Amino acid sequence: MAEEHKLAHDAPTQSAIGEIEELKMEIVEMLKDAAVEFPVGNKSELANLFPPGTKMACRVGGKETHFDELAETLTPDDFPLEDAPAVASKILSRCSLV
Length: 98
Description:
The protein has five helices and two strands; from the N terminus they run αααββαα. By secondary structure, the chain is mainly α. The protein has a domain at 37-98.
């Protein structure tokens, strides 16, 4: 029974999921406004899209993490990123939902 409680506690809330979806939309809009050319082929190209200290952030491992830091967590297998929604999804997949 205790294990079930732990699993329920660890599940992402609707609020957390909604925040991630909002961040995805913000990233897509930001990339559209910047007229980014796709595909994004590697981390250095991605780093150019998110200057150090980009304001939008999420929580990873209990601390606030900025998007430029999240971009550093991607591996060569994560590329190419074909469009803005792919960039948003890949980066935000590194965010903690709980």
